[in-house]
């Protein structure tokens, strides 16, 4: 396992291998849980990489699956040790979407639909602070500052000189016209958005109001794809108290098809940049949006 692979991805790969061993044995997660006297949810969380896994867990599971190759067992136990290391985001304390950050940090490409605000990877510091403060009115100034710093640190993936994250964003027109902060914050944000949209690895499209009903009326989602063939794509849906990660092929395929419909309905990148520039000028005049 390469040393630069982050712990979230290590856990995910290890979980996939453990699931493969269970399926080869012809056992259900419930049967494994009964054998080990643990909950079925623990087995599921270990297999989907949402829970830290210890070498002892690996040893016990390999025992249940009757893995005879000791080198394989030792290799999986080493993966478990490596998966317990901490990523950069752990330095900021408890981050509710830390699993997503780990996946995003290792992703090769990301497709995002945002219906309400400019997506986090393309936010300016002032816009990020205003959006976080508005969405978390009970948070302290220290907590808001921490979340802003995490958001800005995540942006290093799209600003990297080597192998930057390929980003495709479809923004609903509402995200441009919803005043987050004030007119100056919005002007600065939209000008920054247009600058980023001109980079070769970033594409921004605007979904105008006059499109009407569309395939993503249910709300925001993101599709993460990875360079390693062993890592399946993931659909991420952010929630208020918990997040949803979809990895089954039919689910990913459905959301990918939805995204293709969105891209077809949205304005092309050139027209999108023009709309963003026009609305930014409206904010610069101080009269709000037209």
UniProtKB/TrEMBL annotation:
Name one matching Pfam family: DUF5753
Gene3D superfamilies this protein is in? lambda repressor-like DNA-binding domains (1.10.260.40)
Q: Where is the HTH cro/C1-type domain?
A: 18-71
Per its record, how is this protein called by name? Answer: Helix-turn-helix domain-containing protein
**Where on the tree of life does the source sit, at the highest rank?**
Bacteria
What InterPro entries does the entry give?
A: Cro/C1-type_HTH, DUF5753, Lambda_DNA-bd_dom_sf
């Amino acid at each position: 396992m390469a040393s630069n692979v982050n712990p979230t991805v290590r856990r995910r790969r290890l979980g996939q291998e453990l699931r493969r061993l269970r399926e080869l044995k012809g056992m259900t997660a419930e049967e494994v849980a009964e054998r080990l006297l643990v909950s079925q949810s623990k087995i599921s969380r270990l297999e989907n990489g949402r829970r830290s896994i210890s070498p002892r867990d690996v040893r016990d599971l390999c025992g249940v699956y009757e893995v005879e190759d000791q080198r394989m067992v030792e290799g999986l136990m080493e993966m478990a040790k490596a998966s317990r290391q901490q990523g950069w985001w752990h330095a900021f304390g408890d981050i509710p979407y830390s699993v997503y950050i780990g996946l995003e940090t290792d992703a090769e490409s990301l497709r995002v639909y945002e219906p309400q605000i400019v997506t986090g990877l393309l936010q300016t510091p002032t816009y990020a602070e205003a959006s976080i403060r508005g969405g978390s009115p009970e948070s302290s100034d220290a907590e808001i500052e921490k979340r802003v710093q995490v958001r800005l640190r995540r942006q290093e993936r799209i600003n990297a000189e080597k192998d930057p994250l390929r980003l495709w964003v479809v923004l609903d027109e509402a995200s441009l016209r919803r005043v987050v902060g004030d007119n100056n914050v919005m002007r600065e944000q939209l000008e920054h958005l247009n600058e980023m949209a001109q980079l070769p690895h970033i594409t921004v499209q605007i979904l105008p109001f006059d499109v009407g009903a569309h395939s993503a009326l249910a709300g925001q989602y993101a599709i993460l794809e990875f360079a390693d063939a062993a890592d399946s794509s993931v659909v991420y849906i952010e929630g208020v108290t918990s997040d949803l990660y979809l990895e089954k092929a039919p689910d990913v395929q459905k959301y990918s098809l939805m995204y293709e419909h969105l891209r077809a309905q949205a304005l092309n990148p050139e027209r999108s940049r023009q709309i963003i520039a026009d609305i930014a000028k409206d904010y610069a005049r101080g009269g709000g949006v037209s």
